[in-house]
Design a protein that fits this description.
By secondary structure, the chain is α/β, with parallel strands linked by helices. The chain contains 13 helices and eight strands. It has an eight-stranded mixed beta sheet with strand order 3-2-1-4-5-6-7-8, sandwiched between helices. The structure holds NADP nicotinamide-adenine-dinucleotide phosphate. NADP nicotinamide-adenine-dinucleotide phosphate binds near residues 21 and 185.
Length: about 290
């Protein structure tokens, strides 16, 4: 495959298969279409059930089949594996014979290393491992991507274009995927807890649930946007909100007493170790050293 075929302009004419169009897979399809990364006629998706297939086909005007992963993979230049990690080995075995070395394989499966994918498909081809997060549904995802040794810069660009359609993208070494999973993969759950608690605090102090919710969600959204747009360290932005002897510093003293920052650091450390243990167990199960 010549490099020229991999540039962004040509990507719109490439055929993409999304195997397992659930929450993340369907969100990617939405982003790919909205961002003009591929035409509807060049997108195929598979799911498990006929009902889900019908629903997605109607929503996106693309071909969606229940099963038929092998046919979808065969007909595509780029195959996105969006099934659950437990289903992945079965789907890989199903499509193995249909894969070609001029295709690109992208796995979204948490904790499944590229080495395991290569072992099951029994061939050396461009394989990317991506860890998106759930805000891809609203095109505000954070996706980290790792690749094997045969992926070219042009192929990385293609993969970047796909995930850029649903948020921001960072390339990392594969051994950093555990930390990525702990930070941004699971991260939305931590932030939902923060939002939930802010709402509860407002309600406790007499605000209506509705107003408290609107204020809490916008506060998190606005604070994040300010970090991105000013590129200032969050500690500097925090200091800008604090008036000596004022209200904010009294709240911050409480948060420090309860160890908010230390708690989050520990949460990410624990989740990273958990992800590493999951991968070790997967590799053990499939008879290969992690
Ligand atoms: N959710 C997250 O926040 C997140 C974040 C990062 C990475 N991931 C990774 O993304 C992947 C998908 O997660 P998800 O949350 O989107 O899961 P999900 O909503 O359960 O989606 C899985 C999809 O796979 C389909 N499926 C099951 N067996 C299949 C088969 N044999 N052939 C074709 N399709 C099949 C299911 O079809 P039916 O709908 O018909 O059952 C479903 O649509 C996982 O590997 C996960 O580790 C998820």
């Amino acid at each position: 495959m010549i490099a020229q075929r991999y540039n962004g302009r040509m990507l719109t004419s490439r055929r993409i298969a999304v195997l397992g169009a659930g929450n993340i897979g369907a969100a990617l399809i939405g982003g790919i279409l909205k961002g003009g990364v591929a035409e509807p006629g060049n997108l195929i998706a598979t799911v498990r059930t006929a009902e889900r297939a019908e629903e997605l086909a109607a929503r996106y005007s693309i071909t969606v089949t229940a099963g038929s992963n092998r046919e979808a993979a065969q007909a595509s230049d780029l195959v996105i594996l969006a099934v659950k990690p437990s289903t992945l080995p079965r789907v890989l075995e199903e499509i193995r014979e249909a894969l070609r070395e001029d295709q690109i394989l992208i796995s979204l499966a948490a904790a499944v290393p590229i080495a395991l994918i290569e072992k099951v498909i029994e061939r050396r081809m461009p394989v990317f491992r991506a860890m998106p997060n759930i805000p891809v549904v609203v095109e505000e995802g954070a996706t980290a991507v790792a690749s094997n040794g045969v992926c070219t810069a042009a192929q990385r660009q293609i993969v970047e274009n796909i995930f850029r359609a649903v948020g921001v993208v960072a390339f990392v070494e594969e051994d950093m995927m555990h930390a990525v999973t702990a930070l941004s993969g699971s991260g939305p759950a931590y932030i939902y807890m923060v939002i939930e608690a802010l709402i509860a605090g407002g309600v406790k102090m007499g605000l209506s649930r509705e107003i408290s919710t609107r204020l809490a969600e916008q506060t998190v959204l606005g604070a994040a946007k300010l970090v991105r747009e000013t590129m200032l360290h969050p500690a500097i932005l925090k200091d800008q909100v604090i008036t000596p002897g004022g209200v904010t510093i009294s709240a911050i003293h409480e948060l420090e007493k309860h160890g908010l920052r230390s708690m989050l650091i520990s949460a990410i450390e624990t989740a990273t170790h958990h992800s590493q243990a999951l991968t070790r167990s997967l590799m053990g199960k499939f008879g290969k050293e992690g």
